[in-house]
Amino acid sequence: MIVLQSVTKTYGEVRAVEDVTLAISRGEFVFLMGTNGAGKTTLLRLISREEEPDAGVVLVGGVNTTDMSSAAVTRLRRRLGVVFQDTRLLPNATVSENVALPLRVRGKRRAEVECRVSAVLERVNLADKEARFPHELSGGEQRKVAIARAVVAGPDILLCDEPTESLSAERAADIVDLLLDINAEGVTTLVATHDLGTVNRLRRRVICMDDGEVQSDTPIGSVEWPQATN
Amino acid sequence: MLASFHTTRYLVGSALTGLWRNRTMTGGAVVTTAIMLITLAGFLAINDTLNQMVTELGRKSNLIAYIRDDARPTHVTALIKDLRSRPGVREVRFVSKDDALAIFESRFVDQRDILDVLQNNPLPASVELHLNDPAVVPGLAQELQAMTSLFDDVVVPLDIVEEIIGISNLARVAGTAIIISLTGVTLFVIVNTIRIAVFARRQEIEIMKLVGATDWFVRGPFVAEGAVIGTSGGGIAAIVLVAIYAQVTPAVTRIVSFLPVSTDAEFVRNLAVFTLLVGLVVGSLGSYFSVRRYLSV
Q: What value does the CA radius of gyration of chain B take, rounded to a whole number of Å?
C-alpha cells in the first residue's frame, strides 16, 4: 500500500529523512516511533505529498508521488486521511463544518454530507458538540474532530501525527482505541508517536526512527527506547 | 453535473460565510478599496476638467488671412472649401469687403469720418479660421502665407499659439502621468489589502488542499469574496462620487464659472460604472493571484 525506496529529504543542511526504505501492506496498523526531530513528521508529509523527496521513490497505492500534476496530487489526497500534529482545524468553522470539509471538496450532496458527518461525530462521541467552534473544545476533543475529518470520506490510508500528544493517559487510550477501530475496518493506519506506553501496550508493528534513519522495524512487539520517553 | 451544482452552491455559500466570519478584514478591505477608487475617480474628474480647459483654450486660436483685392473669387471659394475639410479646423468664415466695413463702422462709430475722406472701401476681404487644435496653426499659417497671389497678409498670434500648445501638451502629459501613477498605486493598495485578507486565511487554504480540494475549489470562494469586496468598495465609491457631483459641482460651477467642470449625467454615470468595474476586476484578480501562492501545498 505504501512503499518508500531509498528516500532522502533534506531541509538546507538538515537531513530530515535519510535513505529510508520500508513497505506497509494494506490494512496494516503501524507505529512510527521516534523522538522529536527523528523524521517521523517528514515521512508522513512525504507520503501525503506535502513534500517531495530529494532522492528515492514514494509509492502510495502503487502510484509514484514524484513529479505529480496538481490534479494527481488531489486524487492521491482523496485516498488519504491525515490527522495533523497541530490538528489544523479551521478556527472559523464549526465542528460539523470542519468534519464536512473533505466531503464538500468532493462535491457531495448536502443530505449525504449531513448524514455522514452525523455518523462520524456520533462515533467519536462529539455529536452534541457539532455546532461548537474548535476553540470551545478540549485538546482531546479537537483531536477527535481531526480524526473524524480524516475518516469521514472513507480513506484507504490514515496518517496520524502524534494523535495522543499532551493528552492524559485516559484520553490517549480513548484516541488509540478509536484508531484501532478505524483500522479494523480495513483502513491502513500509520501513527507517528513517541508515546512508548501506548506502543508497548498495543503490540503492533513498530518502525523506530532516529536522526532521519530507520533504526528498527519490529513486526509485532514492544520497544525499548529510553530516549523516546521524553 | 449534480456534484458541480452542489459544489457551486457550496462555493457561493462558503464565500458569503467567509466574508461574514472575517467581517473586520472584509470591512477594512471594502473601505480601503472605496477610498482608493474615490481618489482615482476624483483625479480622473480633475484631469477631465483640465483637458476641457486646455481644449477650450485651443478653440480660441484663430487665424486671419487678408485677401488681395485682385484675387480671383473662384480661387478663394475653392480654398475655403478645402480649408473646411482640414483636420483641426472648426470653422472657416469668409468676411467680404462690405462685411469688414460694416464691422468697422459698428465698432468705431465715432471714427466714421475717416471713411468719408476715402472714396473707396480700403478694408480687405478676409478668411477667418477658427481652430480646434492649436497645433495646426503654424503649418496652416505658413501654407497661406505662401499663397501670395491670394493673400496680402496672414495674421496669426504665433507666440500665444505656441504657449497654448505648450500648456496643452504639459497638461496632457502631466495628467496622464498622474492618472497612470495613481492607477498603479490604487491597484497596488487594493491588491495588497486583499492579499493581507488572504494571508490571514492561508492556513484555511492549506487545509482545503490537504483534504483533497482542487485548486479551483479553493480559489472559487476567495475569488467570489474578492469580487464582492471590490464591487462593494466600487459601489461605495460610485455613490460618494454621485453625491459629490450632485452637491459640489453646481457650487463650483457657480463660483468659478470659467471652469468647464463636467456636470452631465453621462460623465458621472461613466465614472460610477468605471469605479464599479475596477473594483470588481481588481478584487477578483487580486484574490485569484493572492490565493495562488498558497496553493502549492
A: 31
Task: Enumerate residues 6+ apart whose C-beta is below 8 A from B24.
Answer: none
First to last CA, chain A: 32
Instruction: Provide the shortest C-alpha distance from residue A78 to chain B (in Å).
Output: 5
Q: Measure in Å the smallest separation between the Cα of A108 and chain B Cα atoms.
A: 6
Residue B21, number of CB atoms within 10 A of its CB: 16
Instruction: Using an 8 Å CB-CB cutoff, list residues of chain A that contact chain B.
Output: 48, 50, 70-71, 74, 77-78, 80, 82, 84, 88-90, 92, 101-102, 104-110, 149, 153
Q: Smallest CA–CA separation between B204 and chain A, in Å?
A: 6
Domain B62-156 adopts which CATH fold? Alpha-Beta Plaits (3.30.70)
The rounded distance, in Å, linking the Cα atoms of A69 and A101 is: 22
Predicted TM-score (pTM) of this structure: 0.66
The DSSP bridge partners found for residue B94 are B127
Render each residue's pLDDT in chain B as its tens digit; 297 residues: 555 676 777 777 877 887 887 788 888 888 988 998 898 888 888 878 777 777 776 666 688 899 998 988 899 899 999 999 988 888 899 999 889 888 888 887 777 677 777 777 888 999 998 888 777 888 888 899 899 888 988 887 767 767 777 877 787 788 888 888 888 888 888 778 777 877 877 888 888 889 999 888 888 888 888 899 899 999 999 999 888 888 877 777 777 666 666 667 788 888 899 999 989 998 888 888 888 878 877
A198 near A192, Cβ under 8 Å?
no
Q: Which three cell numbers mark A195?
A: 508515546
Name the residue type at position A165.
E
Listed by start position, the domains of chain B span 2-56+164-292, 62-156
Interface of B with A (CB under 8 A): 2-4, 6-7, 10, 14, 18, 21-22, 203-204, 206-215, 217, 295, 297
Smallest Cα–Cα separation from B63: which of B49, B83, B40? Answer: B83
A108:B212 CB<8 A: no
All three cell numbers of A154: 472513507
Nearest to A107 among B7, B18, B295 (CB): B7
